[in-house]
Automatic annotation (TrEMBL):
Protein name: Uncharacterized protein
Region (Disordered): 1-24
InterPro entries, per the entry: SAM-dependent_MTases_sf
Organism: Thermobispora bispora (strain ATCC 19993 / DSM 43833 / CBS 139.67 / JCM 10125 / KCTC 9307 / NBRC 14880 / R51)
Basic and acidic residues: compositionally biased ranges: 7-22
Amino acid sequence: MSLTAPADRRAGRGAHVLDPRSRAGARARPIGMITRGTTGQNRLRRCDRWIAAVYGPLLRSAAPPLVVDLGFGASHVTTLELFTRLRRVCPSVEVVGVEIDPARVAAAKPYEREGLSFTLGGFELPVGRPPLLVRAFNVLRQYEEEAAWAHWDLLRSGIHPDGVIVEGTCSEVGHRATWVALGAEGPRTLTFAARFTGFERPSDLAERLPKTLIHRNVPGERIHAFLTDWDRAWAACAPFGAFGMRQRWIKTAELLARDWPVATAPPLGGRSRWRLGELTLPWSAVAP
Ligand SMILES: C[S@@+](CC[C@H](N)C(=O)[O-])C[C@H]1O[C@@H](n2cnc3c(N)ncnc32)[C@H](O)[C@@H]1O
């Protein structure tokens, strides 16, 4: 699934690993802090679609697979959407919404059903067994960068050995999004996703970079070089806009792939993903 050999991947910063003894027992205090609960119907659809396509086979490999939606916010709605979408590709999947605000957990409880539950907790992932997949969207964005690295490490230590964390950020209605997929071994990929009418140039997505990258979008850093080249390729492919923004996006991805290790084959890349307004590349290509 990953684009690079394990040795090529940059692991999270070990210096920030939290004390594993702090992993929760049922009565321990959840790790993290209550932040704004902003959420919205369908705002995470791009990420959910990607998870279903890219990690559907992983989910189907377990019986039954456990998925955590960490930090579901003021409403249960995006967790329910994740559950519904994943059940289509993996009927046995179980989803637990984990939230650090007890009032938000209480508000979500009435929406529990077979395979979907909500519980109080934090980065220690207080669920019955190590989850195969964790989605954490618009959660780490509200932490400091150093804390975000540390919480990546803690989350990685809590998942199934073959598991994955999808940690990302999106705009209010989900027209612009980026996310990182991390395995137990470290970060694997960075994905950009956009509605074709939702931006002027690809670097507009920089405002939604994960916390571990957003402050690195400055000259001299690889993420900045990548976004600069992407804008250049986008400008060079302007004539394809005559056939629509989708064609321009696809041609831009093809051009960019000459210089950057953009995923060009399924499940992560190629026309079938690009036509959806996605672009994925190995984390190692943009890591700070
Ligand atoms: C902005 S909302 C995101 C809601 C939803 N995931 C979305 O993207 O629409 C962030 C939520 O994460 C919760 N949160 C922050 N840190 C957390 C942690 N360590 N564990 C669980 N929830 C956390 C906050 O309390 C808040 O409700």
